[in-house]
Amino acid sequence: MSLTIIAHITAKPEHIALVKNELQKLIAPTRLEEGCISYDLHQDNQDPAHFVFFEKWSSHALWQVHMNNQPLKDYLAAVDGAVADFQISEMTAID
């Protein structure tokens, strides 16, 4: 059974460009990770500080590997102090 992740990231207003740039850096390496089915970044049309990753993973275990990979560690270091809010929802599709 696959896992859907919805990650909401809200940048501090003065750091929108930095956070967006660092989030975009995650896309290519993450899409190559084992278990990644899709990994899509969105930016809110009304609130440019609000970003959403819509992710699908083949398993919870492989998503956990992703959460401990170097690109994510690099992202967290780069945006330290620049993110106002971060929320993750782990979900399962209902067919």
UniProtKB/TrEMBL annotation:
Domain called ABM: residue spans: 3-91
Pfam families the record matches: ABM
SUPFAM superfamilies, alphabetized: Dimeric alpha+beta barrel
Protein name, as recorded: ABM domain-containing protein
Organism annotation: Vibrio stylophorae
